[in-house]
Design a protein that fits this description.
By secondary structure, the protein is α/β, with parallel strands linked by helices. It has a single domain, classed as Rossmann fold, CATH 3.40.50. Helix content is 33%, strand content 25%. It is built from six helices and eight strands. It has helices spanning 40-48, 68-72, 88-98, 103-112, 128-141, 158-173; strands at 2-11, 14-24, 29-33, 55-60, 73-76, 146-150, 177-181, 191-194. The strands form two sheets. Strands 5-6-7-3-8 form a five-stranded parallel beta sheet, with helices on both faces. A three-stranded antiparallel beta sheet has the order 2-1-4. Bound molecules: adenosine-5'-triphosphate. Residues 11-12, 14, 16, 34, 36-42, 181 line the site of adenosine-5'-triphosphate.
Length: 199
């Protein structure tokens, strides 16, 4: 699903990790752990294509490697990446359509994430947990094999942590893969990848 070979990433003057190699297979979840500042977000952003590594390669087992990032993965950062001035309905439609979802996919995501009562609110008026559910909707609306998730559970209550765990398991059962930066154990069986002590 994704293979990382001899990856070296710096931010500013600071070397975060050197010669990091790992593979995430279809049906597998990996819990990316490490202290605050160790570089978990930076690693995920590098895999998503937002940070250029100093060295190393990232390859996807996609049919067309040139299109691999665009169509192969979902990146969900811990800041959600939502436009706060839009109504939830418009923001969901924009994000989901951009990710390639059709109307049925969007309707399914609204249902699974119980977003209907929130859709006429401005994004800025949503709670942190509600915003996370809205951001996650595109992941459900436009299925892609690899999920890169940065602290996906942080703002969620017990009910939605459990629900997200079930969505993750369903994704893995269908042959998907997940790499999630977390400070707590994932609610699905997962291999640990620890990138260090930070600073
Ligand atoms: N744009 C940037 N420019 C310079 N340094 C950065 C930038 N973004 C992050 N860093 C630095 O890179 C290091 C790793 O940050 P990163 O956010 O990847 O860590 P993390 O493991 O996700 O931490 P946390 O558990 O606190 O979320 C930190 O020292 C941070 O200050």
């Amino acid at each position: 699903m994704i293979s990382v070979t001899a990856l070296t990433v710096s931010r500013g003057e600071r070397l975060l990790f050197r010669d990091l190699s790992f593979h995430v297979a279809s049906g597998e979840a990996v819990a990316l752990t490490g202290a605050n500042g160790a570089g978990k977000t930076s690693l995920l952003r590098t895999l998503a294509g937002f940070i250029r590594p100093d060295a190393g390669t990232v390859t996807f087992s996609a049919a067309d490697p040139a299109e691999a990032r665009a169509g192969h993965l979902h990146w969900l950062g811990h800041l959600d990446g939502l436009k706060t001035g839009r109504r939830a309905r418009e923001e969901l439609a924009f994000q989901a359509r951009w990710a390639g979802a059709d109307a049925d996919g969007i309707a399914a995501a609204v249902d699974v994430l119980a977003l209907e009562p929130l859709l006429d609110l401005e994004v800025r008026k949503l709670s942190a947990g509600q915003r996370r559910r809205l951001a996650f909707a595109r992941v459900i609306a436009a299925p892609r094999p690899l999920w890169l998730l940065d602290e996906p559970f942080a703002p969620l209550d017990a009910r939605w942590r459990a629900a997200l765990g079930l969505m993750m398991q369903a994704h893995l059962d269908k042959g998907g893969a997940i790499l999630a930066a977390v400070h707590d154990p994932l609610p699905v069986a997962a291999r640990a990848l620890d990138i260090g002590a930070g600073r």
